[in-house]
Amino acid sequence: MSGLRAPQLGPIVGHTSHDRCRLWIRGRAPRDEGAHLGAEMRTVGLLGVVDERGRLRTGEAGRPWAYYFRLHREFDRTGTFVLGQETSLGGEDGPAPFPLEPDTDYRVRMATLTVDDPLPDAESLGDGDLAERLPPLATMGELLEGFDSADCEARFRTFPDPDAGPADELSFLIGSCRYPGLLWKIKEADRIFAPMAAQFQRQGGRWPARFTLLMGDQIYADKYHRHLPIGRADTFEEMQSRYHEAFGAPNMRRLLRRSPVYMILDDHEIEDNWSQDRLRDNHHLFNIAIGAYMSYQWSHGPRSFGRRLYYRFECAGYPFFVVDTRTQRYRQRAGLHDNHLLGRPTIDPAHPGQLDRLREWLSEQQREHGNVPKFLVTSSVFAPSPIDERLGNELRDEPERQRLAANLEKREASDAWPAYPRTRQAILQHIFDNRIQNVVFLSGDVHCANIARLSFEHEQGDIGLFAYDVTSSALYWPFPFADGDPNGFVHDSREDEQYDGFPLEGGEGDHSGPVVHYRAWGFSQEDNFCRLELDKGRHRLRVRVLDAQGEPVKVTDSEGRRVQANDLPLAPWD
């Protein structure tokens, strides 16, 4: 048996609530070589709850709050422990679940232990048998105290008690698209995560942020181009290397140990512009990419729908639904009525698809919580559309079905929502029909931060129902001349040369149905993340765009003035 080691990667603070927190690490055994893991060695995780001095906390009869848990070879020696819910490996002789309190700061230290394993890979060792081979928790827990906190310690604050209702304030961070950097630029790719980590400390009169949403392209499996083999990850070892480079970078590692983090994939976790129709050409690439994604991103997030990649969570009484717009997207084939971005339409009500679950979630939130803001996270931008992918005004006075066919060739080539007009219409129609107020889409992908306000209108005008899209991108993208030009997006969907009104059903006759229009502003191509601040008293959402040094980026407001933050008015909520 070898000694206790600090994690190779992690800890990562994952899905958190008022009474539990999922914590992740990756271990390494002495005979591991890249993706080839030594089959004769089993790796176990160790977690201890510590005080501010790094001393192990104890419970009744001086028993340490320490736990063993499994690290899985099938998940590349990664594993998670749900503090506040789970007991130690084997269960009977270890401590009970650690009692977490709402809205409280905690520190944990995590490490790995390797154990000889004579069993072949096809056989498994039960938790009880494995626990018998491990040294006493008290002995190993004491060793944790001697570790350098920078190598093994995570800090987090539990979320407020949801029974208290929506908090007066909530702040969180969003971002997407971390290009890895090449050669001497690698340090630049990690720079922005230092000021992001600083947002979880109190600064002046501003409260710390609660969590971070990373909305896609956490890695770039294809550094150059999917058709260019140089720099393209198409083996598990290469995928593994991408995650180790990203999650092991000093500043990003610091952020992941200080902030509850929620992730969702986009295309570059697999390859550029990936969709389900490419499975016909390369199942192998998908299998290794999703295997790596589930080990390094999915595993520390919420598991709301089994092994599905989309999920929901809540913080301080505010609900979030994170959609999977990548592995669920289907391009049109013979016999299909339309492309589908959130999975195939539901046929069997006993097995609802992602779109139906999302619509039910929207209805549930409005029904049970009224106008409380509802955050819908989508890696692809909901609005604004790129100029050359808008619906166009050629068929603006035609029936709804014909209008959705406008500019079809350009939109079919899109990698975002414009290629999936029926999916977009289904969500907007549901919001309209059920008068679901204060929906806020959170997006990434386009390497250009911006804000869009969507208004639901009849021919008579605005009906007082609206939504927003807040886009934050990119965390690091060194090629602004190649992507994300603000002039390449619709700024006002009502303008003839920018027309992009989304038609809905529900009018009398062919030409009088409601339409969703939008205005967009606040564009910036600087490397950025956004800090979002909800204020219930002022019923507003403040959006701050922050640069790679954490300084405010001056952007335009809806009137074209240069500001350091945009205040988005919302419908009042209780």
Helix-strand blueprint:
Blueprint lengths: L8 E8 L4 E6 L14 E10 L15 E5 L7 E6 L21 E12 L10 H6 L4 H8 L4 H4 E5 L11 E7 L10 H6 L1 H6 L13 E3 L21 H12 L2 H9 L2 E3 L19 H14 L14 E5 L2 E5 L31 H16 L4 E4 L22 H4 L4 H5 L8 H13 L5 E5 L5 E10 L2 E11 L30 E2 L11 E10 L4 E7 L4 E7 L8 E2 L5 E2 L2 E4 L5
Parallel strand pairs: 8-9, 9-10, 12-13, 13-14, 14-16
Antiparallel strand pairs: 1-2, 2-5, 3-4, 3-6, 6-7, 8-19, 11-12, 15-16, 15-18, 17-18, 19-20, 20-23, 21-22
Helix pairs in contact: 6-8, 9-12
Unreliable runs? none
Mean pLDDT rating: 91
- Could you tell me the radius of gyration in angstroms? 24 Å
Strand tally: 23
Question: Would you give an account of this structure?
Answer:
By secondary structure, the protein is an alpha+beta fold. Helices cover 18% and strands 24% of the residues. The chain is built from 12 helices and 23 strands. The strands form 5 sheets. The protein has an 8-stranded mixed beta sheet, with helices on one face. Helix 9 (354-369) packs parallel to helix 12. The longest helix is centred in the middle third of the chain and has 16 residues, at 354-369. The radius of gyration is 24 Å and the shape is globular. The protein starts with 8 loop residues before the first strand and ends in a 5-residue tail after the last strand. 47% of the residues are buried. The mean pLDDT is 91.
